[in-house]
Design a protein that fits this description.
Blueprint lengths: L2 E2 L13 E3 L9 E10 L4 E3 L3 E3 L4 E11 L2 E15 L6 E15 L4 H5 L6 E2 L4 E3 L1 H11 L30 E3 L5 H8 L9 E3 L1
Parallel strand pairs: 1-3, 8-9
Antiparallel strand pairs: 2-10, 3-6, 4-5, 5-7, 6-7, 7-8, 11-12
């Protein structure tokens, strides 16, 4: 059973995503609960499509637990999103919540010595950086095709208006290009009939 220690209050003044783990003292099984609202340092996602704007707050609810090889971080992170519908281009506001789990290896541990720098996170001078872990999880969870609703009909390709706002039977008459020359000649002839096709 893990030994609960007080939640740490020390965060780096220059980077609120950095937290001091010295209270865990490498005692396997000791842990603390971390609940904070942290600012997004740079915009996440694709601007004007789906994003978490710079300065938005991410709410983290994490358990930091000392294990033999390092500090295991697990829990959730949530934040608000904004963008535009991929079909009708209306503004879309939503939220995303992700689960995260990551081992931050102690210096000189077996994990530290046997893995490359990009394979596992590290503890540096008792500090861990939560930002890459949370950032990557949120970006992967953002929808590739954001929608205002699942049944959004999108825009009319002829006039660009939203189908949901158009009258039933809305369409745009077009002339079959194979008939274009004949139509033009008939239009110049008084009383001439035109041959046309209709494409909605």
């Amino acid at each position: 059973m893990s030994e609960e220690t007080p939640s740490p209050q020390r965060a780096d003044a220059r980077n609120p995503w950095l937290f001091d783990t010295h209270e865990l003292s490498r005692r396997a099984g000791s842990s603390f609960h971390l609940q904070r609202k942290l600012p997004v340092p740079t915009t996440l996602g694709v601007p004007e499509v789906i994003e978490v704007p710079e300065g938005s707050m991410v709410e983290v609810d994490l358990l930091l637990e000392s294990v033999v090889e390092g500090v295991l971080v697990s829990g959730t992170a949530s934040t608000a999103t904004q963008g535009q519908c991929s079909r009708c281009l209306d503004p879309v506001a939503g939220a995303v919540e992700v689960s995260v789990t990551e081992l931050f290896a102690y210096p000189d541990s077996a994990t530290d010595e046997t893995t490359d720098s990009d394979e596992v996170s590290r503890i540096v001078d008792d500090w861990i950086d939560l930002e890459p872990l949370v950032r990557d999880a949120i970006v992967l969870a953002l929808p590739l095709v954001p929608l205002c609703s699942e049944d959004c009909q999108g825009l009319c390709s002829g006039c660009g208006m939203k189908w949901a706002e158009l009258e039933p039977g809305h369409g745009h008459e077009t002339i079959d290009p194979r008939w274009a020359a004949l139509v033009q000649r008939l239009e110049e002839t008084p009383g001439g009939d035109t041959a046309s096709g209709s494409d909605r």
